[in-house]
């Protein structure tokens, strides 16, 4: 790592700060887009702002041409005008999509698709037709010019303008969210309830849209559209896998956005060197910082998807494996109990091989379950292989009681073939607790025999 | 001088529209085939509610292009821009992207749109990283790779058309062969699954078609245009038909037509970039469909709505006429004989004069009211019948509300106003039975708000006395 740290300079610090501020500013409205299922809005807005930018540019130049603006005035007006043009066309994209949805009864994503492709094409046409001499480089819109933020400081302070713009946007978003937190939350989760309580849901939606538009536009110039698209969705989605509360998701999204910015820049510095060593490429190569940040954002999401303590794949897999093991153990108990019931005078128990064949599981899984049961003291070695201990017999009786009660219940209320009764009960028996057992027994008036004629063992808790 | 200009313009138009230009012919052919194919496939995606999958696929193809370039360069320098290799890379990475998005739908918290957006940003980010790296390589002649983003519609070659045509034939052929299956998939995937159709397989096939069209289209017309061609034609077609097969073919037709219009326009005006103009032609068609489409178009809906509103207003007018005359008459036949002043009408229903005047004119045209010699209004025979009908509807509804829905007397009038116009004759019959108002003397139930007015609804002899 020393290689990169030695190269680290004030420029890198400013790059990370700019990107982090932009990413955090995007993460706030992005959370609500995600919850409203409008995540593709970022992609749409990044295209739809083009005609606004070009029109603002053309207007400025027309004004200069007509003599209303001096060249120095032009330079001063350039940023605000482009910002306003982009914001207007971004908000218009959202509104048009909404209008198509309502009046044309279109599906949201289709409406969005129609609007943004049309607006982008309009922008392209305007560039090619009237603004060919303009220096609007599509590549610059795409990748941003993060690497150059330091070149445009405010006055003598040395603070890049992009830092001020994105920081300001973050502050505005945060203040708006804090002021209208309750309203926005309610409108996001239950629009109809909000309306009936007298909250102007349409107005709140419009505010969110304007917030998104302004944030996105502010971020575009410094970090490029690719990073904006990523930052609107990836950090909030990552945070959503970690928290169940809106506040938690918002804070998580902010933190993850900041981490992404730092990690992305580090990776952008590290990758070319690594590639250089690995592939023997030439030294003078670099990769897009913004693109790398988008990749890191996606990578963090993937990582969370696998490792999230509550919703992660790993956790799900572990839970499932544990459940499977419990079911297998219980099935073994059931088999041993039924064997005792069937042949009360024979040598009790069964060996592993016959158990595995009966339950059709692979031997090593059965072996693990048997070891587990032995450790818990429910079965012990003896008889033909393993036999139930007294405590194991109690548990098994409980299980078989659940099974047979469930069968009786199904037989009473549904017309099903006998075989099917057994299959359904086989699946349900593991999830019937004492309460349901009691309710079933009451419903069936304390039955003693199941539909196949076998005895339903008495309740263990009662005896 | 002007004549020369005209002749020049005419030859120019002839040159374009008679396709004398080889380049125009090639471009027209390629984009039209692509337009038809993407329209057909796009229609299925729209119905499957995945209109923007093409957008994600096209962005996700980018890292594949970069990786393919690097791989081919590593194997043999200067072979990096071999097209089939690049297309293969694009296809693989687009498929990987869509599969990734598909897999993400297993997380219940991440909805489809978020899954698509995350995929898009992740893959596009990787693509940008790879492309910027390639561009910074001293050996990188990556100029051709940018074509995939911005397209080169105006510079299509005859060799490109072969690829487009093969992809299009495959896509349209598959859709034509499996139209019944796709129809089922689009409208009721769960039923299809329950019926034993391979839903997952069909979905994968559809996704594969989208990827093929997207990748081929990206290379020739650019990332954005192919997305537009997948979205605009089907959404336009949706305004013209409510049936599955017509939708698919109309959508294909729109795609072809948009491509044709765009190419011809861009050939006429030198500065118009073909890709953007094709999209805008599609947008223009969409706007036309949105406004004038026969099934859901705004104009027809507006027409139907205003016709209904006029009918409601006429009903209200006739009812007002009846209610003004009600105290003055002893039998329903007298309705046509009494004059109505405009002032009385204005007072009864709180119309503004500006609103009442056209209404009266409509009523006159429809032979419901006529002007008498004193410039007052009178009901015609037609108008009498219609007025009786309107009052009957209104009062039956009121009675129903009062007796069965526990609406207070004062509210009944307003509430009945709101729904009396939309009840159908069968329901009216039921109301009559319910209210035992079928006897001929009860042609009109008495006004519940004036229970002491004995005129109508009572035996005529008593009413007169």
What does this 3D model show about the protein?
The complex is a heterodimer of chains A (463) and B (465). Chain A is built from 19 helices and 2 strands. Chain A is mainly alpha-helical and 463 residues long. Chain A is elongated. The longest helix of chain A is centred in the middle third of the chain and has 40 residues, at 201-240. In chain A, strands 1-2 form a two-stranded antiparallel sheet. Chain A has 2 domains: 2-311, ABC transporter involved in vitamin B12 uptake, BtuC; 321-443, Winged helix-like DNA-binding domain superfamily/Winged helix DNA-binding domain (Arc Repressor Mutant, subunit A). Chain A has helices at 2-7, 10-35, 41-48, 50-65, 71-103, 108-130, 138-143, 161-179, 181-189, 191-196, 201-240, 246-279, 289-307, 313-342, 352-359, 363-376, 390-413, 418-428, 434-443; strands at residues 379-382, 385-388. With 465 residues, chain B is mainly α. Chain B has 2 domains: 2-225, ABC transporter involved in vitamin B12 uptake, BtuC; 304-450, Orthogonal Bundle (Arc Repressor Mutant, subunit A). Chain B is 72% helix and 1% strand. Chain B has helices at 2-17, 22-47, 53-75, 83-104, 112-136, 147-150, 158-177, 179-187, 189-194, 199-221, 223-237, 244-268, 274-292, 298-325, 342-349, 353-365, 381-404, 409-419, 425-435, 460-464; strands spanning 369-371, 377-379. In chain B, strands 1-2 form a two-stranded antiparallel ribbon. In chain B, helix 14 (298-325) packs across helix 16. The longest helix of chain B has 28 residues, at 298-325. The N and C termini of chain B lie far apart (94 Å). Chains A and B meet through helix 3, helix 6, helix 7, helix 11 and helix 12 of A and helix 3, helix 5, helix 11 and helix 13 of B.
């Amino acid at each position: 790592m020393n290689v990169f740290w030695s190269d680290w300079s004030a420029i890198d610090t400013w790059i990370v700060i700019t990107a982090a501020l932009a990413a955090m500013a995007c993460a706030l409205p992005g959370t609500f887009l995600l919850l409203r299922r409008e995540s593709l809005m970022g992609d749409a807005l990044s295209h739809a702002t083009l005609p606004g930018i070009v029109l603002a540019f053309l207007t400025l130049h027309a004004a200069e041409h007509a003599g209303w603006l001096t060249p120095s005035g032009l330079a001063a007006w350039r940023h605000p005008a482009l910002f306003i043009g982009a914001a207007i066309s971004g908000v218009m994209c959202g509104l048009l999509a909404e209008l198509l949805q309502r009046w044309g009864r279109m599906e949201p994503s289709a409406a969005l698709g129609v609007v943004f492709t049309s607006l982008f094409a309009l922008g392209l046409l305007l560039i090619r037709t009237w603004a060919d001499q303009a220096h609007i480089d599509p590549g610059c819109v795409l990748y941003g010019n993060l690497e150059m933020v330091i070149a445009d400081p405010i006055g003598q302070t040395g603070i890049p303008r992009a830092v001020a713009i994105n920081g300001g946007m973050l502050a505005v978003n945060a203040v708006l969210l804090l002021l209208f937190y309750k309203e926005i939350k309610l409108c996001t989760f239950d629009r109809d309830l909000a309306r009936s309580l007298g909250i102007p849901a349409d107005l709140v939606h419009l505010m969110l849209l304007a917030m998104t538009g302004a944030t996105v536009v502010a971020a575009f110039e410094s970090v490029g559209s690719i990073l904006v698209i990523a930052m609107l969705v990836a950090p909030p989605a990552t945070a959503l896998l970690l928290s169940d509360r809106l506040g938690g998701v918002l804070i998580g999204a902010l933190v993850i956005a900041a981490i992404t910015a730092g990690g992305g820049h580090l990776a952008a510095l590290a990758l070319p060197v690594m590639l250089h060593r690995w592939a023997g490429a030439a030294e003078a190569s670099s990769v897009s910082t913004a693109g790398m940040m988008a990749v890191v954002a996606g990578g963090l999401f993937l990582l969370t998807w696998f490792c999230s303590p509550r919703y992660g794949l790993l956790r799900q897999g572990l839970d499932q494996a544990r459940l499977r093991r419990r079911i297998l153990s219980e099935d073994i108990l059931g088999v041993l109990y039924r064997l005792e019931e069937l042949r009360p005078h024979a040598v009790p128990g069964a060996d592993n091989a016959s158990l595995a064949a009966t339950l059709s599981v692979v031997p090593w899984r059965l072996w693990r379950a048997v070891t587990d049961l032995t450790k818990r003291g429910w079965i012990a070695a003896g008889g033909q292989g393993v036999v139930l201990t007294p405590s194991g017999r109690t548990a098994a009786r409980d299980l078989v009681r659940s099974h047979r009660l469930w069968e009786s219940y199904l037989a009473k209320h549904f017309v099903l073939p006998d075989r099917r009764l057994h299959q359904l009960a086989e699946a349900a028996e593991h999830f019937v607790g004492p309460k349901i057992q009691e309710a079933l027994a009451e419903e069936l008036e304390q039955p003693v025999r199941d539909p196949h004629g076998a005895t339903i063992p008495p309740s263990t808790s009662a005896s | 001088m002007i004549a020369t200009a005209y002749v020049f313009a005419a030859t120019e138009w002839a040159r374009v529209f008679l396709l004398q230009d080889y380049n125009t012919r090639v471009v027209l052919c390629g984009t039209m085939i692509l337009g038809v194919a993407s329209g057909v496939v796009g229609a299925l995606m729209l119905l499957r509610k995945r209109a923007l999958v093409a957008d994600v696929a096209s962005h996700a193809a980018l890292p594949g292009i970069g990786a393919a370039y690097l791989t081919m360069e590593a194997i043999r320098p200067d072979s990096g821009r071999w097209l089939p290799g690049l297309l293969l890379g694009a296809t693989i990475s687009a498929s990987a992207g869509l599969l990734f998005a598909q897999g993400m739908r297993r997380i219940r918290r991440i909805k489809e749109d978020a899954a698509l957006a995350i995929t898009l940003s992740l893959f596009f980010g990787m693509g940008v990283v790879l492309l910027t790296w390639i561009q910074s390589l001293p050996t990188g002649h990556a100029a051709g790779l940018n074509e995939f983003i911005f397209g080169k519609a105006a510079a299509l070659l005859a060799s490109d058309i072969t690829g487009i045509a093969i992809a299009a034939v495959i896509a349209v052929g598959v859709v034509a062969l499996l139209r019944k299956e796709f129809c089922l998939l689009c409208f009721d995937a769960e039923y299809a699954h329950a019926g034993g159709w391979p839903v997952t397989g069909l979905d994968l096939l559809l996704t594969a078609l989208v990827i093929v069209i997207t990748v081929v289209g990206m290379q020739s017309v650019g990332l954005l245009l192919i997305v537009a061609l997948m979205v605009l034609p089907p959404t336009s077609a949706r305004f013209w038909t409510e049936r599955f097969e017509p939708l698919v073919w109309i959508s294909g037709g729109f795609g072809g037509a948009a491509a044709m219009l765009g190419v011809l326009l861009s050939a006429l005006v030198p500065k118009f970039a073909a890709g953007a103009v094709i999209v805008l032609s599609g947008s223009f068609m969409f706007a036309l469909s949105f406004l004038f489409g026969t099934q859901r178009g705004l104009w027809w809906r507006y027409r139907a709505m205003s016709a209904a509103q006029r009918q409601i207003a006429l009903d209200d007018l006739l009812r007002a006429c009846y209610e003004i005359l009600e105290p003055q008459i002893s039998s329903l036949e007298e309705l046509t004989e009494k004059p109505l002043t405009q002032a009385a009408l204005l007072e009864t229903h709180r119309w503004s004069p500006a609103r009442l005047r056209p209404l009266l004119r409509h009523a006159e045209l429809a032979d419901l009211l006529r002007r008498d010699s004193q410039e007052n209004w009178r009901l015609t025979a037609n108008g009498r019948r219609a007025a009786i009908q309107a009052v009957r509807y209104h009062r039956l509804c009121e009675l129903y509300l009062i007796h069965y829905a526990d609406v207070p007397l004062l509210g009944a009038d307003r509430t009945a106003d709101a729904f009396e116009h939309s009840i159908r004759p069968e329901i009216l019959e039921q109301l009559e039975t319910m209210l035992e108002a079928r006897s001929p003397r009860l042609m009109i139930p008495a006004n519940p708000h004036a229970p002491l007015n004995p005129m109508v609804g009572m035996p005529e002899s008593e009413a007169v006395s």
